[in-house]
TrEMBL record:
Residues 80-117 are annotated as: Disordered. The lineage of its organism: Eukaryota, Viridiplantae, Streptophyta, Embryophyta, Tracheophyta. This is Retrotransposon gag domain-containing protein. Residues 80-91 have a biased composition (Polar residues). Residues 92-117 have a biased composition (Basic and acidic residues).
């Protein structure tokens, strides 16, 4: 999978690539697919526990996990939007806090905490060397 590629996009690209191959065993296709997604994800574990027997089965299960991924992404967006709008309303209705004196700021350390955004990205997105 490519960086920031959704499972749905990857499955579409993988399916198109499989159609271009003239002769390939089902086992080979499944192994290539499995090696292309991030280990440790629920979808990967599902494939490991019960390998698909047909391409239809593989794509049906991938679609199921794609819908789950879409739901997680939509819920994350709703939380972010709700957080922004509730933050804006509370700022309008309350007095802003007193700002620290410049000498106090230096003692606090960096003005912004380090940002970690990994929780905003779907579980399977991971960089793989090609």
């Amino acid at each position: 999978m490519q960086d920031n590629e959704s499972l749905r996009e990857f499955v579409k690209r993988f399916g198109q690539a499989v159609l271009q191959v003239e002769a390939c065993s089902m086992d080979a296709v499944l192994q290539i697919f499995k090696r292309s997604i991030c280990p440790g994800t629920p979808f990967f574990e599902s494939l490991a526990k019960k390998p698909p027997t047909t391409m239809d089965d593989l794509f049906r299960r991938a679609n199921k996990y794609s819908m789950l991924e879409d739901d997680v992404r939509a819920a994350t967006q709703q939380v972010l939007v709700a957080g922004r709008s509730s933050g804006n309303n509370s700022e309008r209705n309350t007095k802003p806090p007193d700002r620290p004196k410049p000498s106090d700021r230096r003692q606090e350390g960096p003005s912004r905490p380090e940002c970690h955004l990994s929780h905003l990205f779907p579980y399977h997105m991971r960089s793989f060397s090609r």
